[in-house]
Design goal:
This protein is of the alpha/beta class and 295 residues long. Strands 2-3-1-4-5 form a five-stranded parallel beta sheet, with helices on both faces. Helix 5 packs across helix 6 and helix 6 runs parallel beside helix 9. The protein is globular and about 60 Å long.
């Protein structure tokens, strides 16, 4: 930084100019939710990175953000929650500042973990009960910046089935009955409560764009237009496939057969059963009615 050493005043003005560029950025926050084709959207945008660069759009998705979350400076004596909030706020601020340095016009931040994880939902605490705390990192860096927040919601039946499949894949076996009973009868929390908590965190003037997962195929062009702008959205090349396919009826039956035999499979074995009885092999996706409902 010889520029800093020899021309300190000029450097200060240069930094002010970069800061102004960061403030002038269009910020779009895509917050999921989980199990609403979020991974598909992130993969689609990542595959079209050159299109985004051509339209002066910076993209921050989990593959970029989560390593930053892990390595960000944290307050030494803070609680784990406060450390997590601080590290995420730092990473988001770095992303926005970097986009300004690169002369981008828009930054798209897509990370569903900013509103919480699936684990508390699987533990029966209701939908994103801790969003008011988990999303503090978002409100901390937005201040009065203009921002568009985008969120997809999903019918409860298919949401819980899909979330259950992901939990099996990552954390191991839990009876579907227990998970569903805790959420529906004890959690007593749905999308209206999630949206109410989220709106309280956003700065004045923020836009909140919602769409239903069930209409994703029809609304995808509109979603991309809101994320990227109409011109960039027209240049996006789609792809076929599901990055994280859900379980099939045959896979669930194979897992439950092992459980009845007192041989509860570990997550690695569950993932193997998912592959063996996957949709690619012609097996039918598991449905809400296929799983035993709580009594």
């Amino acid at each position: 930084w010889k520029f800093t050493l020899w021309y300190p005043s000029a450097c200060i003005f240069a930094r002010i100019d970069l800061h102004k560029r960061a403030l002038a950025l269009e910020i779009v926050l895509h917050l999921g939710a989980h199990k609403t084709a979020t991974t598909y959207l992130q993969t689609l945008l990542h595959r079209n990175a050159e299109v985004l660069r051509r339209h002066r759009i910076d993209l921050a998705h989990p593959r970029r953000l989560r390593p930053m979350f892990r390595t960000a400076p944290r307050p030494r004596y803070a609680t784990p929650l406060k450390q997590r909030i601080a590290s995420r706020a730092w990473a988001l601020e770095q992303v926005i500042a970097n986009a300004g340095d690169l002369g981008r016009d828009r930054v798209v931040i897509s990370e569903e973990q900013l509103i919480g994880s699936l684990r508390p939902i699987m533990q029966g605490r209701g939908l994103y009960r801790d969003i008011a705390r988990e999303a503090l990192s978002v409100s901390a860096i937005l201040e009065d910046r203009p921002v568009k927040v985008m969120l997809s919601i999903r019918n409860y039946d298919s949401f819980f089935v899909s979330a259950y499949g992901q939990m099996l894949r990552g954390s191991g076996y839990l009876p579907f009955n227990a998970m569903l009973r805790r959420n529906l009868l004890e959690g007593r929390r749905g999308w209206p409560e999630v949206l109410t908590d989220l709106m309280r965190l956003l700065p004045k003037g923020a836009e909140l764009k919602l769409w239903r997962f069930e209409r994703f195929a029809r609304t995808l062009p509109g979603v991309l237009s809101e994320l990227l702008g109409a011109r960039a959205a027209r240049d996006i090349q789609p792809f076929n496939g599901t990055p994280l396919p859900g379980p099939t009826e045959a896979a669930i039956e194979a897992i439950e057969a092992r459980v009845r035999a007192n041989d509860i499979p570990e997550p690695e074995e569950i993932r193997r059963l998912f592959r063996q009885y996957g949709k690619d092999a012609g097996y039918q996706a598991v449905s809400y009615t296929h799983l035993t409902l709580p009594t």
